[in-house]
TrEMBL record:
Domain TonB-dependent receptor plug: 121-235
Record-stated family: Belongs to the TonB-dependent receptor family.
Subcellular location: Cell outer membrane
Pfam families (alphabetical): CarbopepD_reg_2, Plug, TonB_dep_Rec_b-barrel
Entry-linked InterPro entries: Beta-barrel_TonB, Beta-barrel_TonB_sf, CarboxyPept-like_regulatory, Plug_dom, Plug_dom_sf, TonB-dep_rcpt-like
Name the record gives this protein: TonB-dependent receptor
Principal location class: membrane
Lineage: Bacteria, Pseudomonadati, Bacteroidota, Flavobacteriia, Flavobacteriales
UniProt topology in membrane: Multi-pass membrane protein
Position of the signal peptide: 1-22
GO CC annotation, single: cell outer membrane
Length: 951
């Protein structure tokens, strides 16, 4: 071959190889129907997984695209996703997209409840998406408050940001007030916020909503059983903002009033942009100060969080490092007294909208029962509430491996602490009740014949030192001789309502170090989308609980009481310390620890049977191990108590460990399965159905609460959950709706009650009963655009929740089992599940002005399994106005509970110390028609002004 031929060959080879391996740029513009540029629209190239994001001018750019055929997917929440096939050759490509309105986001890609990203219309589950625009129209007083907008989801946010309940479709029986997220998974970016739950330790403690959240995806039941760790009841996934090609962000300041003009202040910030070499960053967070929706003498909530992520994009995927630092104080609202069983009205001068009945702020040093020999103390200040801290860091990796294969690994480590310092219970205790004196010390002294805590009691205001009242309460002991209890005032002073509050200091110190990971391999072929992998989580958890009695006035704005016994001819005895705290560490003591491991293997195939017909088949095998121990405890035995002073009897009953421990080490293994169908019979309409057999393993509360000072002699029961759903999704140009009929069955529900034995001052849990329930219902979600400016929305659920087999252990108010019985409530209505709930709203937007009004209706709910008391239905109206001052600056006014509804969200039973909801039967109401009881009202009106500046 001569030189000329050789050079021609090289030129030909180079030209051929360049054409085969050409790398070009794909760019373009994305607008809405009004030709306004869309900022933050996502552009994805399949199958390479290369992606871009539009800038402030609606432009995008994807570099280094190899030659070949691609599907380009353009999505923007609230608008229909656009899909187009393109062929990449040797020249750059420029495209223009105009996206139409998508009223229910049915054309947007969802990731929650699916192993592969999927257009919502093509998903075989009931999924709801809340966009960042939706989230900005909420006066958020907690995570549960936000989720009220998701149809079929029952939320009880009446306690505030924490101590809330969230569940769906009647899967609710073990979702107690202090464990309200029992069946569902609260997630951030696809991983649980917390791996474990137990009393006063639930995931919303470590979650706050702010501008760093881009959207929320929620599914009820269904595929949650095979896509989440031990959470078959649903997934609520808060997804963070992604990358930006240009530096951009938003600053938001908020100020408002709640209740009786209690102020609220908050500042949010989020910003993002590019770095060098295809690195991108996003960061933000918030800080707030909230005086509370009801009246207290301390700041109810304060603190905030910071979040960030760093993302490296390559032509086959991405690598992301992310983190969160949360440091936050909040509290929770307790119940309010009411009378009139048929039409509850606030009692004892209290008010459903403003009364809190929380102890006022003070600072006490209470001996730490775990380390009495060291002189250790626990500082207690009820103004702290719960101090939640979370340090979470993770790595998320997605890479295409070629030939239809890809891998994703999401790993997170977190170090959590929740330190509770608040009050528990706030019941009426009349001055003629022997508990007024008896709760101040170890009951063994009383039943041993020591009545020194009775007689002439002097009550002083703990803050001012001024005397309020003197009584003689020897008559309270008459109950033990069959006489009516009594007391006498010795001076003109009176205590409000002739009572004190039955309350206790509630100190809980909970820590957990957690590691969780989900590894997913995906193989996509012409007719199959197969996903398989492993999910795991490990938690090292410790929990300490200590409770002391406290003397507090029973009135709307409680005061601490310093109490002494001043009997003639006897030394003065101090029933309380100078703060009003009594019976140091003598009411509650739990010191436990556990190591929890959860490992799951899963596989799912989405099989394309025909062009518009897909079948989902999924399996998940999960094994959970709980390995831990509980301390045995007993009253500290020393004459004169901890300080050795016989006259300070408030420290005579401190509970301390005996040195013995009750260990537990149990495994729970089970197989969950799910099969789903999706038939897209039109381009914008689809039918779907799914059947799932799921499982729920016990949480740590099973060991901590049910085995106090006794051996953990048996493992808990795995609850069995069967669910079927069938629905229709339809997306028209001006009307969109989804409707889902469902059937759910829950079996092996372990039910035990918290009881108080007044005769021995013993707190105990009754033996567990295994029960079952069934719920049939219909959910819907719809949106109708009356004009281009006016839209109506309507979503909700109709359901029939039944306790098919249900028994309650009746301890007859004492720890003695001789008079115990089992009561059968089978076929009663399942409590706290409304038969009707819905949200009806209207939204208007014209030019720079927008407005909305929403009506939330909550139907009547049974207050307990006996169906003896019904929580009435209630209505809440929320509204708002917004105005864009210029391109960057906007203002919004939001009002929640516009008409200050006094609806009742929860029921705690009779207004007596240690009572619970199930203690109220029809016979009890008939025999006590004028008795007071405890309810939890919805939060009162709040108004909020937001100023937002985007850049």
């Amino acid at each position: 071959m001569n030189k000329t031929s050789f050079l021609l060959f090289l030129v030909f080879f180079f030209t051929l190889s360049t054409s085969l391996l050409a790398q070009v740029m794909v760019s373009g513009t994305v607008n809405d129907e009004s030709d306004e540029p869309l900022v933050g629209a996502n552009i994805l190239l399949k199958p390479s997984n290369q992606f871009g994001v539009t800038d402030r001018s609606g432009n995008f750019q994807i570099d280094e695209v190899n030659s070949g055929e691609y599907i380009i997917v353009v999505s923007y929440l609230g608008l229909k996703t656009s899909t187009e096939t393109i062929t990449v050759g040797t020249e750059n490509i420029s495209l223009t997209f105009s996206l139409e309105k998508d009223l229910l986001n049915l054309q947007n890609v969802v990731v929650t409840g699916n192993f592969d990203p999927r257009v919502q219309l093509e998903s075989s589950t009931a999924v709801t998406t809340l966009s960042s625009k939706d989230l900005k129209k909420v006066f958020s007083r907690g995570t549960a408050d936000v989720l009220q907008a998701i149809p079929g989801t029952f939320t009880d946010p009446s306690a505030g940001e924490v101590f809330t309940k969230v569940y769906s479709r009647g899967i609710s029986a073990s979702a107690e007030d202090d464990l309200g997220w029992y069946y569902v998974s609260l997630q951030e970016d696809g991983l649980p916020v917390s791996l474990v739950q137990h009393s006063y330790y639930t995931p919303e403690l470590f979650h706050r909503l702010d501008l760093t959240t881009d959207k929320v995806e929620g599914i009820r039941g269904g595929s949650a059983a095979i896509t989440a760790l031990n959470a078959p009841g649903g997934i609520y996934n808060f997804i963070s903002k992604g990358i930006s090609n240009d530096f951009a962000g938003e600053v938001q300041v908020q100020g408002g009033l709640q209740g009786e003009s209690n102020p609220f202040y908050r500042a949010d910030l989020v910003f993002s942009g590019p770095l060098r070499n295809n690195w991108f960053y996003s960061a933000g967070g918030h800080y707030r100060r909230d005086e509370g929706a009801r009246n207290t003498d301390f700041t109810f909530s304060k603190g905030g969080q910071a979040k960030f992520n760093l993302t490296k994009v390559n032509d086959k995927g991405y690598f992301k490092f992310y983190g969160k630092i949360l440091d936050d104080f909040t509290n929770r609202w307790t119940g309010v007294a009411a009378t009139n069983w048929n039409d509850p009205q606030a009692a004892f001068g209290q008010d459903f909208n403003t009364t809190s009945l929380l102890m006022p702020a003070f600072s006490a040093n209470i001996p730490d029962g775990r380390r009495l020999s060291e002189g250790a103390i626990n500082n207690f200040d009820p103004s702290q509430g719960v101090h939640a801290q979370d340090r979470a860091f993770g790595v998320d990796l997605l890479q295409s491996l070629g030939n239809g294969w890809s891998v994703r690994n999401n790993l997170k480590f977190s170090n959590k602490r929740a330190n509770w310092q608040t009050s528990i219970s706030n019941n009426f205790v009349g001055l003629d009740d022997f508990l007024v004196s008896a709760l101040s010390r170890d009951f063994a002294t009383l039943f041993g014949g020591d009545f020194s805590a009775f007689g002439n009691l002097v009550f002083r205001d703990a803050q001012t030192g001024n005397e309020i009242a003197q009584i003689n309460n020897f008559g309270a002991l008459g109950i033990f001789q069959g006489d009516p209890p009594s007391f006498d005032y010795l001076t003109d002073g009176r205590l409000p309502n002739d009572a004190i509050m039955g309350t206790a200091t509630w100190l809980k110190d909970n820590t957990a170090k957690e590691w969780m990971n989900q590894l997913t391999f995906r193989k996509k072929s012409e007719n199959h989308d197969f996903n398989f992998g492993l999910a795991g989580g490990f938690s090292n958890s410790e929990m300490f609980t200590q409770g002391s009695f406290a003397y507090v006035t029973y009135e709307p704005n409680p005061r601490m009481l310093r109490v002494t016994v001043e009997n003639p001819g006897a030394p003065v005895l101090e029933l309380s310390d100078e703060n009003g705290v009594s019976n140091y560490g003598g009411l509650f003591y739990i010191n436990s620890r556990a190591k929890v491991s959860q490992i799951a293997a899963f596989a799912n195939d989405r099989w394309k049977i025909a062009e518009k017909f897909h079948l989902d088949l999924g399996l998940r095998y999960e094994t959970i191990n709980h390995d831990g121990s509980n301390d045995r405890f007993a009253p500290f035995a020393q004459d004169g108590g901890v300080d050795g002073d016989a006259t300070t009897i408030y420290d005579n009953g401190v509970l301390a460990p005996t040195g013995e421990q009750d260990e537990f080490d149990y495994n729970y293994s089970y197989l969950s399965h799910s099969i789903g169908l999706n038939y897209k019979f039109q381009e914008d309409a689809a039918l779907f159905a799914r059947f799932t057999g799921g499982n729920k393993a016990p949480e740590l509360s099973y060991y901590y609460n049910n085995f106090s000072n006794v051996p953990v002699n048996q493992k808990g029961e795995v609850q069995k959950i069967n669910q079927f759903e069938m629905g229709l999704k339809w997306n028209l140009s001006n009307f969109s709706f989804t409707t889902t009929a469902f059937w759910s069955q829950l079996r092996n529900i372990g039910v035990g009650s918290f009881e108080f034995d007044g005769a021995t001052s013993t707190v105990f849990y009754t033996p567990i009963q295994l029960n079952s329930s069934r719920t049939i219902g219909l959910e819907w979600e719809s949106a109708y655009a009356l004009t281009t400016d006016l839209r109506l929305t309507f979503n909700g659920a109709l359901q029939n929740p039944i306790a098919t087999d249900w028994t309650i252990y009746d301890a007859a108010g004492s720890v003695d089992t001789a008079d115990d019985s089992i009561v059968d409530y089978s076929d009663n209505v399942l409590p706290f599940n409304p038969k009707v709930m819905f949200n009806l709203g209207t939204e208007y937007q014209k030019g720079n002005f927008d407005a909305f009004l929403r009506w939330q209706f909550m139907g009547e709910r049974e207050g307990n399994i006996a169906n003896a008391f019904q929580l009435p239905s209630y209505n809440i109206f929320n509204g708002g106005l917004g105005y864009s001052i210029n391109k960057n600056l906007s203002a919004n006014l939001i009002v929640t509970n516009l008409f200050n509804s006094a609806g009742l969200a929860n029921f705690f039973g009779a207004n007596s110390f240690g009572a619970n909801a199930n203690g109220v039967t029809s016979d009890f109401i008939q025999n006590n028609p004028d008795a007071s009881f405890v309810v939890v009202p919805v939060l009162p009106r709040g108004s909020l002004l937001k100023l937002s500046y985007t850049f």
